[in-house]
């Protein structure tokens, strides 16, 4: 059996996590959380099957602040190569619309 180099496995796992994150939508906006710019960092250890995701919300007073990280964790945990997923909610730096992809800005009509 041939094994993948660590960097290839790392890249593939990050891409798979991003694919999953693009299926999770902000409950108040018709845009996925990845394109909305809510994901700040994704760290993975493919050999241990673990992922750590740092994310934020559009505002600290967001009504889903207590539950949404768990929703994201469950979605990513569905990847068969992951045994452990930790989603950390952070507020620094604060989110702003510059973090959104062009497609997200177009969807929301936020032209600069």
How would you describe the overall organization of this protein?
The chain is of the alpha+beta class and 112 residues long. It has one domain (6-108): GMP Synthetase, Chain A, domain 3 (2-Layer Sandwich), CATH 3.30.300.130. Helix content is 29%, strand content 17%. The protein has three helices and three strands. It has helices at residues 6-21, 68-77, 102-108; strands at 39-45, 50-55, 84-89. It has a three-stranded mixed sheet with strand order 1-2-3, covered by helices on one side. The longest helix has 16 residues, at 6-21. The N and C termini lie far apart (52 Å).
Quick rundown:
By secondary structure, the chain is of the alpha+beta class. It has helices at 6-21, 68-77, 102-108, and strands spanning 39-45, 50-55, 84-89.
Blueprint (SSEs and pairs):
Elements: H1 6-21, E1 39-45, E2 50-55, H2 68-77, E3 84-89, H3 102-108
Parallel strand pairs: 2-3
Antiparallel strand pairs: 1-2
What would you give as the CATH superfamily? Fe-S cluster assembly (FSCA)
Question: What is the number of helices?
Answer: 3
- Residues in helix, %: 25-40%
Taking strands numbered 1, 2, ... along the chain, how are they ordered across the largest sheet? 1-2-3
**Total domain units:** 1
CATH class type: Alpha Beta
CATH architecture: 2-Layer Sandwich
CATH topology annotation: GMP Synthetase, Chain A, domain 3
Q: Could you give a short account of the major beta sheet?
A: 3 strands, mixed
Poorly predicted segments: none
3D shape: globular
pLDDT averaged residue by residue? 91
Q: What integer value in Å does the Rg equal?
A: 15 Å
Helix and strand succession? HEEHEH
Please state roughly what percent of the residues sit in beta strands, choosing from under 5%, 5-15%, 15-25%, 25-35%, 35-45% or over 45%: 15-25%
Number of strands: 3
What's the end-to-end separation, in Å? 52 Å
């Amino acid at each position: 059996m041939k094994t993948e180099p660590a960097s290839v496995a790392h890249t593939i796992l990050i891409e798979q996590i991003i694919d999953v994150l693009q299926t999770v939508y902000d409950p108040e906006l018709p845009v996925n959380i990845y394109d909305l710019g809510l994901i700040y960092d994704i760290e993975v250890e493919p050999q241990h099957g673990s992922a750590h995701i740092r994310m934020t919300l559009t505002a600290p007073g967001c009504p889903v602040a207590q539950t949404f990280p768990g929703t994201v964790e469950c979605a990513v945990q569905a990847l068969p190569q992951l045994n452990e997923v930790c989603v950390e909610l952070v507020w620094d730096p604060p989110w702003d619309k510059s973090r959104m992809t062009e497609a997200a800005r177009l969807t929301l009509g936020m032209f600069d």
